[in-house]
Amino acid sequence: MNPDAKKILLAGLIFAVVYGLLNSLSNIFLLPSAPIISFRPQIALPMAVGILVHPLAGFITGFAGNVVGDAISGFGAFKFWNWHIANGLMGLIPGLAVYRHIRRIDTVRAFGILQGSIVFACAAGVGTAVVLDWLFLHFMTFPASLPSWILPAFLTDAVNGFILVPAILLIAGRIVLTLETRTILMITGLLIASILATAGSITWAVLDDLVSHGAMVQNFYIAAIVSVGLLVIGFVAAVVFVRKMTAPLAALGRAAEAVEKGRYDLPELAAVSARADELGRLARIFEQMAGKVGERENSLQRQVAELQITIDREKQARDVSDIVDTDYFRALKEKARKFRGA
Amino acid sequence: MPEIIAIHSFRGGTGKSNTAANLACLLARQGRRVGVVDTDIQSPGIHVLFNLDPKDAAHTLNDFLWGKCDIGRAVYDVSRILGPEERGKLFLIPSSIRTGDIARVLHYGYDINLLKEGYQQAIEQFALDYLFIDTHPGLNEETLMSIAIADTLLILLRPDQQDYQGTAVTVEVSRALEVPRMFLIVNKAPASLCGDALAAKVAATYNCDVAGVLPHADEMMELGSSGIFCLTHPDSSLGRAIDGILRRIET
Ligand SMILES: Nc1ncnc2c1ncn2[C@@H]1O[C@H](COP(=O)(O)OP(=O)(O)OP(=O)(O)O)[C@@H](O)[C@H]1O
Ligand SMILES: [Mg+2]
Questions:
Q1: Does residue A298 lie in a domain region?
Q2: What is the DSSP code string of A260-296?
Q3: How confident is the model at residue A30, as a pLDDT?
Q4: How many angstroms away from the CA of A319 is the closest CA of chain B?
Q5: Residue A303: which of B144, B161, B192 has the nearest Cβ?
């Protein structure tokens, strides 16, 4: 077995044990949190392993970890095997998106791909589990399982992964703090805080005028959908917003590079300088400046190129010999030698 | 060792007198004892820069060359133009501006040995570190003498087709006179030309060191010879360029 594969397998299995233990703990102690979204931070583990170590290591962590967790919890190691595959996919997919392709998460685009891959991984994982159940296992009933099993599983994992994977990648140095990532992290943080707070308050409001158990579950369900919907919409809006804000800086950077290399017409600034804001002004000034520098450079080059020092060497030789080949000059030279010798 | 530095150019109006005066002032400012001789007997002018009224000059280089006085009497202390913080000394040996005196020297000429002796005496008597010789443009007998006496020759030219050919002749003649050190100085260069490219081109054309390229400065024109540029505009680009030339020729 080649050493890389060995490393991937080993890392996968070690993290699988950790993941399994954490899973069995949260199977015993259900932690309260926002409605229906239970607090299951460990889901970030296979995802982070997939991104940082290898997508396959992420798959092993998710898959084997779920086996271990189910076994310890007494569910039977392979009874819910469809969920092992679901967890494996949740570790695999973000790794596939990020592990090789985005070595440095330093732009809003990279961050968006990361977060998108996490949400997609959860949807794909849960979707696969549901399809496998429907085909082979028949534990679930539709549509009754939707609010009680399927949606909670998806929402919990998506929200937890969404919050915690960036935190781990930040600590691991995979997310590099730049103007773009700082801004998107800040907005994402605010978004999550406000959505969790809203979801929490909806929960309490629902508890206040509790009519029946069914109504409560129904309302929790609505609150959760609304929260996650807002989270996704808010995030997409934030990505667009931050890109609009920072893209001009990138364009200015490219323009500055162009000037440094001696190119003074800057079509890449056209979109930025059309803006009415501060960055637009900066871009316009930059364009003018580049234009002036270019003009000066051109005229300098023209002048130096045009500068010709032409000397008629024959005439020079004649003129020199008219002076040098005289008795006066020879006498002068003699005297000069004497002065200098003295 | 006191050093005799001659400033010459093939054509007139290249900035010889101003360059000589500025370099002399900078050296005096540094505490050196510096003399300046105006050998431009036909058209003297450097006294204007040093603010010396010809009426105050009872004796001139002309008187010395005719044996009417010894050189010491034609030396004037003009250090006051250096300003209050003067440390060194600045002396001027002017030429006469009286037409009769001019015609007489031009007619009879003078002997190079006498001139050299005069310089030697002035250097000793006033304990000079440097003696600058401002010359008449072109290659006549008098300027050849100045070149022959100089330890260091600075040849000025403008970046102008009119100056190039004559400068080439001057450089070769000076070489034939075995001047120990020779530098070219490009003066009145447009700002856009004041780069290393021009200096390199000139150096290659004349096969001669270029001590510096001096930019054309409107402030210099505004000054109109009523003062020494380096003292009034030390931080201008021309002021710094003159300073650079000094550092180049000092070593
Ligand atoms: N770098 C400069 N920029 C602008 N003007 C200059 C510069 N150098 C000299 N000048 C101007 O050029 C004119 C001639 O200067 P200067 O008298 O020093 O030249 P010169 O070579 O001694 O002339 P001449 O051959 O008549 O003795 C003066 O008006 C002076 O102010
Ligand atoms: Mg002059």
A1: yes
A2: HTT----GGGHHHHT-SSHHHHHHHHHHHHHHHHHHH
A3: 57
A4: 7
A5: B192
Number of structural domains (chain B) is 1
Which CATH number is B71's domain given?
A: 3.40.50.300
| A244 and A280 together in one domain | no
- pLDDT tens by residue, A9-60: 999 999 999 999 988 887 766 554 544 556 678 999 999 999 999 999 999 9
Q: How far apart are CA A55 and CA B230, in angstroms?
A: 72
* Structural domains of chain A, count: 2
Token reading at A30: 């259900």
Judgement on whether residues A61 and A202 belong to the same structural domain of the protein: yes
Residues A33, A76 share a domain:
yes
> Which pairs from A242-251 meet CB under 8 Å and 24+ separation?
A242/A108, A242/A180, A242/A183, A242/A184, A242/A187, A243/A108, A243/A109, A243/A180, A245/A183, A246/A108, A246/A179, A246/A180, A246/A183, A248/A272, A248/A275, A248/A279, A248/A280, A248/A283, A249/A179, A249/A279, A251/A283
- Please check whether residue B136 is in contact with residue B143, taking contact to mean a CB–CB distance below 8 angstroms: yes
| Ligand 1 pocket test target in B9, B10, B14, B18 with most atoms within 8 Å of CB | B18
Contacts of B202 in chain A (CB under 8 A): 309
Q: Does A2 touch chain B (CB under 8 A)?
A: no
Is the CB of B220 inside a 6 Å radius of any atom of ligand 1?
Answer: yes
- In this complex, the residue of B164, B172, B193 whose CB is nearest that of residue A304 is B193
**Residue A91 placed within a domain:** yes
Give the nearest ligand 1 atom to B214 CA: 1
Give contacts of A 256-315 with B, CB under 8 A.
296, 299-300, 303-304, 307, 309-313, 315
- Whether A277 and A244 map to the same domain: the answer is no
**Ligand 1 lined by B96 (C-beta under 6 Å):** no
Ligand 2 midpoint to CA B207 (Å): 26
Q: What is the pLDDT of residues B153-188, one digit of tens each?
A: 999 999 988 899 999 999 999 999 999 999 999 999
Residue A259 lies inside a defined structural domain of this protein: no
A205 and A285 part of one domain: no
User: Given a cut of 70, is residue A217 above it in pLDDT?
Assistant: no
Domain that holds residue A318: 269-341
How many Å lie between the alpha carbon of B147 and the closest alpha carbon of chain A? 9
Say if the Cβ atoms of A316 and B168 lie within 8 Å.
yes
Q: Which of A248, A278, A305 is the last residue of a domain?
A: A248
* Cβ contact A335–B113 (<8 Å): yes
Residue A209 has pLDDT above 70, yes or no: no
| Helix pair B141-149, A327-341: axis angle to 10 deg | 20
Q: Do B168 and A337 touch (CB under 8 A)?
A: no
A228 and A278 assigned to the same domain: no
Decide which of A248, A280, A313 is a domain's last residue: A248
Please state the pTM of the whole predicted model: 0.58
Pair A241, A291 in one domain = no
